[in-house]
Design a protein that fits this description.
heterodimer, A: mainly alpha, two-stranded antiparallel ribbon, about 5% strand, B: alpha+beta, 5-stranded antiparallel beta sheet
């Protein structure tokens, strides 16, 4: 356990500079400083040109055969194991309690958000996160109640993958991780980074008998995420023709949306000119 | 003179703002009207299932610009497709879209649809921001891209939590076509199969 943690940690240090050197930028449109995430308006001919090459999403999947294999295995694991557990969780534990569990987990992840706020240089956000954590941990009884949101300090998700992106690191190839599902090279390292920032993991790391706690939390986190996203996943499963491609696009778009922070990328959509 | 120029400039800024606002508000009103219509359809128990399905179809056919969306979604394959393939794709795309929305609406229970605001976009369209308020879990933000063409407002895209449906579908369809050897025929066949699946689901629900 200890050695694993050390490897993860070193990996992070090695990775960060290589990431900066090998900027394989799949997200060139977020480079425009004035309007991050926005593609400038184009006329019909230009749009046609842009639509010509295969879109970045498919282009960015050199490991597609392997990814499809992992996706397939994950699918089987979901149907025979995780979906059953998550159905049981939703069935047995009442909504109110599940919500509490979600809030506690989110509160425990707040220190990781804080580290990422600081690494991104977003000091205003860092202050909000710190306030959220302090208020919810005390007045909110260890995060059971999300008092901060009621005080108008809403939760803002951050992770090390997003931090790497804010440092100018491209997404790298799309990856499907065993059990965890859609990701890419940058976000995989991001996960490792977040793992190493987490004070609870440090606490578990230095006292081996606490390791079970760390695993247990990860398991509940997966369960919570599945229960939370069950509606959108079911919708995708029902309506998709190629589920793999849909999840790939959905993940890529979702991450780009989070990287762009503001909801400005709304011009790459169908347009009246398309009709001609 | 200075004062005059100042007033003159102010007038134009004011007029520009007002213009942008009316565009925006028009799109907002357009969306809220559709939202109300859909909710009445879903909650009014006196409407028969058959009638409900017909009215949905009418809303989707008249309020969404199906052709622009279909062409965008097919992307670079549109040019390669034969006239016959194009027609078949347009028809199948429309039918699968209607079928998938019909099943989505079926799950509607006690959610509320709220318009939050609007935002003019650089490409001349307006994004209408809305959300589905779910009593027991997080709200779902939905953005509608609306354009006015020849005095008629129409929906061109729907984005769920910042994810454009058209962009996702373009990516998916292109994957299907690539796997099918780069032929538009591949996506048409896949859509036909999907439609049959939807048909089965809907028929079995009617029988119950």
């Amino acid at each position: 356990m200890k050695s694993l943690g050390t490897v993860f940690f070193l990996f992070n240090f090695v990775f960060s500079p290589t990431c900066l050197l090998a900027q394989q930028d799949a997200l060139s449109y977020i480079d425009n400083e004035l309007h991050p995430g926005q593609i400038e308006h184009m006329d019909a001919a230009e749009r046609q040109e842009v639509l010509e090459p295969p879109s970045a999403v498919e282009d960015n999947d050199p490991l597609e055969p392997i990814n499809r294999g992992v996706f397939w295995v994950n699918d089987i694991l979901d149907t025979i194991l995780f979906d059953r557990i998550s159905e049981m969780y939703v069935g047995i534990v009442p909504e109110f309690l599940r919500e509490r569990v979600g809030y506690v987990l989110r509160n425990l992840s707040e220190p990781i958000v804080l580290v990422n706020n600081v690494l991104q240089g977003e000091m205003g956000d860092a202050e909000d996160t710190l306030r959220r954590f302090l208020i919810n941990s005390t007045v909110g009884v260890g995060g059971v109640f999300d008092v901060s949101t009621d005080l108008n300090i809403p939760y803002k998700r951050e992770d090390f993958g997003l931090t790497l992106a804010s440092w100018g690191c491209g997404s790298g190839p799309y990856l499907v991780l065993p059990i965890l599902g859609p990701s890419n090279l940058r976000d995989t390292f991001g996960r490792i980074g977040d793992y190493s920032f987490d004070p609870i993991n440090w606490w578990a790391y230095f006292s081996d008998d606490k390791a079970a706690y760390s695993y247990g939390r990860t398991a509940i986190q997966i369960l919570d995420a599945k229960a939370e996203n069950i509606a959108i996943i079911e919708d995708l499963n029902k309506n998709a023709i190629d589920r793999y491609a849909t999840f790939r696009s959905w993940y890529t778009e979702r991450r780009n949306h989070l990287i762009a922070k503001e909801d400005v990328k709304a011009t790459d959509t169908p347009h009246p000119d398309d009709e001609e | 003179m200075k004062k005059f120029i100042f007033l003159f400039v102010l007038f134009f800024i004011g007029a520009g703002g007002a213009f942008a606002n009316t565009e925006c508000e028009k799109a907002e009103a357009f969306m809220s009207e559709i939202g109300e219509k859909v909710i009445t359809l879903l909650t009014d128990k006196s409407i028969s299932d058959h009638e409900r399905a017909n009215q949905f179809r009418e809303i989707l056919e008249t309020k969404f610009n199906g052709k622009a969306i279909a062409k965008f979604v097919l992307g670079r394959y549109w040019k390669q497709a034969s006239e016959e393939e194009k027609q078949r794709f347009l028809e199948l795309f429309k039918e699968t879209t209607i079928a998938s929305y019909a099943t989505r609406f079926k799950e509607y229970t006690s959610e509320k649809f709220e318009i939050i605001g609007c935002r003019p976009e650089a490409d001349g369209g307006v994004t209408v921001l809305s959300q589905i308020v779910r009593p027991k879990s997080q709200n779902i933000p939905i953005n509608w891209k609306v354009f006015e063409k020849k005095g008629k407002l129409m929906i061109y895209d729907v984005a769920l939590e910042g994810i454009s449906m058209s962009v996702t579908q373009r990516s998916e369809f292109s994957a299907v076509i690539q796997k099918g050897g780069g032929k538009v025929q591949a996506i048409n066949n896949a859509l036909e199969k999907k439609l049959a699946e939807f048909g089965k689901v809907m028929n079995s629900e009617i029988r119950q």
